[in-house]
Amino acid sequence: MAAPAADVWTLVGDFSAIHRWHPQVSAPTLRGASPHTPGAERVFGAGTEEELVERLVERDESARRLVYTMPDPPFPITNHRAVLEVVPRDDRHCTVVWTAMFDCSPETARELESVIGDGVFAVGLNALAERYGRGASASG
């Protein structure tokens, strides 16, 4: 990103505000603790059959990192853990890294790579790049 890590973190580091930067996500309902406190839950589609809950496990301000889980995922997966991190490259550029790890069958892994990897993570990261600019390549 062609922006300082602190600027990007101000936007993405708010666990309850993903809808402010991700074009395909509507505002979640917040349950429990404040959005900066482990245990906070953001709920998408609250009260519907498609309700999805993500629980904040860690928010590290100095590392600019959020770690969250899906306690009851709508997919046949276990041990879900996602990390969203803003890594400074220099004073004016950063890289946003968004990953998820979980256990599942190979078939489910292939399906979720498309649904979550391409349909959620890539779309969100591209929206951030559009907002801030892509910046210089890491090698040049």
UniProtKB/TrEMBL annotation:
Record-linked Pfam families: Polyketide_cyc2 (PF10604)
SUPFAM superfamilies: Bet v1-like (SSF55961)
Top-rank taxon: Bacteria
Protein name listed in UniProt: SRPBCC family protein
